[in-house]
Design goal:
This protein has 753 residues and is mostly beta strands. The chain contains 7 helices and 35 strands. The two termini are 55 Å apart. Keywords: Cell outer membrane, Membrane, TonB box, Transmembrane, Transmembrane beta strand, Transport.
Length: 753
C-alpha cells in the first residue's frame, strides 16, 4: 500500500496498543512511554533523510524487485544426414535468459551428436554424445530474507538511497535491502556437463539379438560468492567470500537379450532378459574466508582469514535384473508379464533388494469380426494392469547407517555422532491397479482414454523428529502407508476439417484422492506447524494437510481475533486454541484444454490449464497482513480492519506486538483454484513457392505468449507456487515470498535447409 495508508495503519496499531495498556498517547505525560512514541521514532528512522510526516517518500519496492524488460534469446541449429547404414544427427543451442527478478541471469551453450553405423547385417554400433556449459548469476537463496521478493515487505516511506547516492540499509529499511545484493554481491555458478551413451546391437541368430549400452554423465560445478563490507554477509568483517566445487559422475550400463518372433502369422511373441547397473559418485569442496584488503579482490586467496572449510565424498549404486514377456494374438489380445529385482546401496544388508513384478492385458474389441457391424465405435480397447514398484530416492545415501563427523573437544580432534542409524530401513513399495478403456467415435474424429487407478504405497520413507535428549534431530524411517485413487480422462477431437480450415481440440482432466492409511508406532499424526508452515502427516488424511489453529473471525465488540477451541467455542487467546485440519494443498482436479486452428499457412494454438480443490498457505501473510507487527508494508485487505464496536469484518483490530492473529493459522490459508492461459502461439508457415525462391525446405515464423492470464481468488503473487523454505518431502502449497511463474512473449523463426 502507499505511504499515506501505511503511516495511518502503523500509527493506528500503536494507539490501539496504548489503549490496551491504559495509556493516552495524546497526553504529553504518557507520550514518552507510549507505543505511539516508539512507532513514530521508528518511522523517523525508516524515512531516512526524508520526512514521513509530510509523506515525502513513496517507494514502490515491489516494482524494484522485478526486471520488467527481461529477455530470453534462444538459437538452435540441427543438422541430420548420412545414409541408410550411417545416419547422423547433430545439434547446437545457445540460450541467454534474464530472470524476471533482478540479479538473475542464465546462459548456456550446448551441443549434441548422434551417430549410428551398421557394420554388417548382424552388428550395429552407435554413440550419442552431448556437452553443455552454463552460467547462473542470482541473488539470495530461495525464500531467504535476502531474495528480491523480500523487497515487497519494506516500508514505502523508506527511500532507496541516501543523499550521497548510497543504498539505504537497516535500520532505515526494516529488513535487509536486497538491492544491496545487486550492487555489492557477486554470486556466480558455472557448470560443465558431459554426457554420452554408446551401444552395440548384435544379431546372434534369427529373432535373437543382444544389446549392450554404456552411459556416463559427468558434471563439474563451481560456485564463487563474494560479499562486500556493505552487504549483510560482509558487514563488520571487511567482506566475506565462499568458493565451492562440486563434481558428480553417473555411470550406467544396460545389457539385455531380446527375442522376437511371429508364429503362424497370429502369435506375436517378444521377450527380454537383462541386467542394469548404475554407480553415482560425488565430491564436494567448500572454503570460506573474510577480511579482504580491497573490494576489488574477490578471490579467496586474498582473504585475510580462512574461517571455514569442508570436503565430502559420497557414492551410491543400483543393481537390477529384469525380464519381460509381451504376447499379442491376432493383433487384438495383448498380454505382458514382467519382473525385476532391484538392489540399492541406500538400504541395509538385509533390505538391499526388492522384487517388483507386473502384469497387464488388453483386448481390442474393434478388431473382432463381430465388430464390423458396429457403427458407433470406430475403435475400442479394454485394458488392465497390476504392478509393484519400488522407491529408493528422496533421502540420504547412507540413511541406514550411523554416521560421525569431525569436531574439536578440549583442543583435541574427536569424532561425534551426527546421524542416527536405522538398519531396518527398506524399500518404499507401491502396489497399483489400473483399468482403462481407449475409444474412438465417428471414424476416430473423437478419440479418448478413460483410466481408473488405485495405488497403495507402504513403508513410506520420511525424516521423523526424534526426542532432543537422544542427541539427534531426525531419523529416516519407514513410517506407514498411503493410498492414491483416481480417474483420468483424455478426449481428442477433430472438430472441423473443411477446405483449408482445420480445428482440433484436446481435453484432459484428472482426479486424485490421497490418504495416509497407516502410521507406524503409537502416534496417529506427525504435526508440522512451526509457527510459519503447517504441513503435517495425519492418519486418514491427505499427505501434508494443513494442521493448526482455526480462525473464527473477529469479535465485533472489541476487534479481537478469535480462534476455535477443541469444543468449538471461541477464544481470543491463541494458546487456548485447538488444532484442526484447516486445509489441503493437494488438488482434487487438474485439467487442461488445448485448441489448435489452422488456415492455409496460419496456425493458432491456445492452451488453458486449471487446478481445483486445493488450498495455499500464504506464509507472507503473518508479516504483511498482521496488523503491522514488524513494520512490514501491509496488504490492501488491512484497510477493512475492525475499528469500532459493531464493525463486522474478518480483519482484526491492528495492534502492535500484541499478536492479534499474527502466527500461522487458517486465517492465511486461501483457495488455490486457478485457470491459466498457459500458452498461446500464433504462427505462419511460408508457402512452397516462396521457399523455392529462398532455396530452403521450410520456414515458420511464430509469436508465443506464456502465462498471460490467470483467473484465481488467491491474493498472493501466483497460485502455481510452492516454497522450499523448509526442506521436507511433505511440504507443499506454502508460499513464502516465492517468485511467480514467468509471464513472457517469444518471437521466433524455424528454418529448415
Amino acid at each position: 500500500m502507499p505511504n499515506s495508508r501505511y503511516v495511518t495503519l502503523i500509527r493506528e496499531a500503536a494507539i490501539n496498543s496504548d489503549h490496551i495498556d491504559g495509556i493516552d498517547p495524546t497526553d504529553p505525560t504518557d507520550y514518552e512511554d507510549s507505543w505511539l512514541k516508539y512507532v513514530e521514532d521508528e518511522l523517523t528512522t525508516l524515512s531516512g533523510h526524508t520526512d514521513w510526516q509530510t509523506l515525502e517518500t513513496n517507494t514502490d519496492w515491489e516494482s524494484l524487485a522485478y526486471n520488467k524488460d527481461a529477455q530470453t534469446k534462444i538459437f538452435d541449429l540441427n543438422i541430420s544426414g548420412g545414409n541408410d547404414k550411417t545416419p547422423f544427427y547433430t545439434s547446437g543451442n545457445y540460450t541467454n535468459q534474464d530472470g524476471i527478478l533482478i540479479g538473475n541471469f542464465y546462459e548456456r551453450y550446448s551441443g549434441r551428436l548422434n551417430l549410428d553405423h551398421q557394420i554388417s547385417d548382424r552388428l550395429t554400433l552407435g554413440v550419442n554424445f552431448g556437452i553443455s556449459k552454463s552460467k547462473v548469476k542470482r541473488l539470495g537463496e530461495d525464500n531467504a530474507f535476502t531474495t528480491p521478493m523480500q523487497l515487497v515487505a519494506l516500508a514505502p516511506i523508506s527511500p532507496v538511497r541516501d543523499p550521497d547516492g548510497n543504498l539505504y540499509n537497516t535500520p532505515v529499511t526494516s529488513y535487509y535491502n536486497g538491492l544491496i545484493e545487486l550492487e555489492e554481491v557477486d554470486r556466480a555458478t558455472e557448470s560443465l556437463r558431459n554426457f554420452g551413451n554408446a551401444f552395440l546391437d548384435y544379431k546372434i541368430i534369427k529373432n535373437l539379438t543382444f544389446r549392450t549400452e554404456l552411459g556416463m554423465d559427468i558434471q563439474n560445478q563451481t560456485m564463487n560468492y563474494w560479499a562486500s563490507p556493505l552487504s549483510e554477509s560482509g558487514a563488520g568483517i571487511n567482506g566475506y567470500g565462499e568458493s565451492q566445487w562440486y563434481k558428480s559422475m553417473n555411470y550406467n550400463t544396460n545389457n539385455y537379450f531380446t527375442y522376437k518372433n511371429i508364429f503362424n502369422g497370429v502369435h506375436d511373441f517378444n521377450a527380454t532378459l537383462g541386467m542394469s547397473f548404475q554407480e553415482y559418485t560425488e565430491e564436494y569442496v567448500y572454503v570460506a574466508g573474510q577480511d579482504f584488503p580491497s573490494s576489488s579482490l574477490h578471490n579467496l586467496a586474498s582473504a585475510g582469514e580462512i574461517t571455514d572449510g569442508e570436503t565430502t565424498a559420497d557414492k551410491y549404486n543400483y543393481l537390477s535384473y529384469f525380464a519381460r514377456v509381451n504376447y499379442k494374438y491376432k493383433d487384438r489380445y495383448l498380454f505382458n508379464l514382467s519382473g525385476r529385482i532391484d538392489g540399492s546401496s541406500r538400504f541395509g544388508v538385509d533390505s538391499k533388494y526388492g522384487f517388483f513384478p507386473a502384469v497387464s492385458a488388453g483386448w481390442i474389441l474393434s478388431e473382432e469380426d463381430f465388430w464390423n457391424s458396429n457403427s458407433t465405435f470406430s475403435f475400442l480397447k479394454l485394458r488392465g494392469s497390476w504392478g509393484l514398484t519400488g522407491n529408493a530416492d528422496g533421502f540420504g545415501n547412507h540413511a541406514h547407517l550411523g554416521l560421525y563427523e569431525g569436531a574439536k573437544y578440549n583442543s583435541q580432534s574427536v569424532l561425534v555422532p551426527n546421524q542416527l542409524a536405522n538398519p531396518d530401513l527398506r524399500w518404499e513399495k507401491s502396489n497399483q491397479i489400473d483399468i482403462g478403456i481407449d475409444f474412438g467415435f465417428l471414424n476416430n474424429r473423437l478419440t479418448g482414454e478413460l483410466d481408473y487407478y488405485n495405488r497403495k504405497t507402504k513403508d513410506l520413507i520420511y525424516d521423523v523428529p526424534v526426542p532432543g535428549t537422544s542427541g539427534y534431530d531426525i531419523q529416516t524411517v519407514n513410517i506407514g502407508s498411503m493410498s492414491n485413487e483416481g480417474v483420468e480422462l483424455v478426449l481428442n477431437s477433430n472438430n472441423i476439417s473443411k477446405g483449408s480450415f482445420r480445428w482440433s481440440s484436446s481435453f484432459n482432466l484428472a482426479y486424485n484422492k490421497n490418504k495416509l492409511t497407516k502410521l507406524d508406532g503409537a502416534t496417529s499424526m506427525i504435526p508440522g506447524n512451526d509457527g510459519r508452515f503447517m504441513n503435517s502427516l495425519i492418519l486418514g488424511e491427505s499427505i501434508g494437510v494443513f494442521y493448526g489453529p482455526e480462525y473464527a473471525g473477529v469479535d465485533p465488540e472489541n476487534g479481537d481475533a478469535l480462534f476455535y477451541k477443541e469444543d468449538r467455542t471461541t477464544t481470543n487467546d491463541m494458546d487456548e486454541a485447538g488444532n484442526f485440519i484447516v486445509g489441503d494443498p493437494n488438488p482434487d482436479f487438474i485439467g487442461g484444454f488445448n485448441n489448435t486452428f489452422a488456415y492455409k499457412g496460419f496456425d493458432l494454438s491456445i492452451l488453458l490449464q486449471g487446478v481445483f480443490g486445493n488450498q495455499i498457505l500464504n506464509g507472507a501473510g503473518a508479516f504483511m497482513s498482521s496488523g503491522s507487527d514488524w513494520f512490514d508494508n501491509q496488504t490492501i485487505d488491512q484497510l477493512d480492519r475492525w475499528q469500532e464496536p459493531g464493525d463486522v469484518t474478518d480483519i482484526p483490530q491492528l495492534r502492535f506486538y500484541y499478536g492479534n492473529s499474527a502466527s500461522a493459522s487458517s486465517r492465511h490459508i486461501q483457495n488455490g483454484d486457478y485457470v491459466r492461459l498457459k500458452n498461446i502461439t500464433f504462427g505462419y508457415t511460408l508457402p512452397t513457392k516462396t521457399l523455392q525462391k529462398l532455396r530452403i525446405d521450410n520456414a515458420r515464423i511464430f509469436v508465443s505468449g506464456v502465462n498471460l492470464l490467470t483467473f484465481t481468488k488467491y491474493t498472493g503473487w501466483d497460485p502455481e507456487v510452492n516454497s522450499d523454505f523448509r526442506d521436507s518431502n511433505i511440504n507443499q502449497g506454502s508460499d513464502f515470498y516465492s517468485a511467480p511463474q514467468i509471464k513472457s512473449w517469444t518471437v521466433g523463426v524455424n528454418i529448415g535447409f
